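Dear Dr. H.,

I hope your travels went smoothly. While you were away I took the liberty of generating a structure for the chain from your last submission, since the lab meeting agenda had it listed for discussion. I wanted you to have the full record in hand beforehand rather than looking at slides cold. The sequence, exactly as received, is reproduced here:
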Amino acid sequence: MTKVYHFNPTCEMAIGNGTCSYMPPKRLRSFERDIAPLMGFMGQADDILITDEPTDPSFISFWQQGGIDLPAFKPLTSLSEDAKTKYETILPWGWSLAAHRILSPLKSYCQEPFKNSVLFDWQPAHRDFFSRLTSVQFIKSLSPLALHHNFIRIPGTHMVFRSQDMLKQWLGEQKQPVVIKTLWSSSGRGLFLIRNEDEKENALKRAKKCIKQQGCVITESWLNRIQDLSFQFNLHQDGSVEYLGINYFTADAEGHFGQEYIGGLPEEKKAQWEKKLPANWEEEAASMLKDALTQANLQQYYEGPLGIDAMIFQTHEGETCLHPCIEINFRYNMGLVNMIISQKLHPAAKGQWQITHFKPGEWQEFAQAQLLKHPPVIKDGRYIKGFLPLVPVTADRLFGAYALLV
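The corresponding predicted structure, in token form, is as follows:
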């Protein structure tokens, strides 16, 4: 049965906006349009990816040569015109009131399990649930569990401020860098790092605006990062939780997405910290998170993939520890995309992939040059080395996504 995918990574911004007619800024609309094919890797040949971009035969053929059949690329209007069509489910990157409005023409054509899902209609409680307040509550529930694992630390207090005056007073008492987060944002947006007095004043001005618009802001300790990672889970309709695996990635100082590692973290990077943790640290942490997710009864608001961003960090005393939950993403996320792409490549494939902004025409020039410099290599029917474009190589794209396997 056909699944329908929809790439809307501005879903959190749409929730914060609170209207069904939300439209992202022009630059982000370009991002959604240009990077939409990346979500196609989540599906199969008999699925559909919603996009107004015509199917690029050369892109489809490129991936077929590597053993990957991508979904059909179709505009939304064509999906609702055929009343005889039946879809298994609708899978946006993330849900919002705006996403429900856009996808509503398809709902009546879906199977009963989706119609019975808590996500079939937007509920008023979803607004707060999909905010960072849920992450704060979940982190608090982890604190007593973390005491049983000496390598797990949840430093500082995650606090919620609804008053700029109270926030200013609290910041004046802090001796270490802190971060302020808005309730709804993604990929590092809505995150203010405070390391000195100048940053404090700028952050307070931005926080005042956010408190007025969203009702509050959240503060937490800024950590001495060693490695970013995420734990990937799937929450089922009956409340059971499935652990999918761990993913490693990079982010800049402000939390913006950098690169994803294909085939796991390079050994030379992992060797810098892994021996300082217990041999079974991943299993212990994943089990703790799975138990906490199960106990949280999240299925009353959500079902589907979720990624828990975590961090290996160094304490002020020089210890190497794991913060098991920086925040939860109740949606598809780049870590999950990376895991699926990695599974579809050759098992021995290693490298990284990233998304880059280009000037008009530069993505096509860059990709064509890289394909010549790093020609793709296929082994046992799967790509194992070389430059791999993850979106079509066209002149009109301002954003490109690509992998380099070494």
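Two observations you may find useful: The domain at 159-221 is CATH 3.30.1490.20 (Dna Ligase; domain 1). The mean pLDDT is 94.

With kind regards,
E. W.
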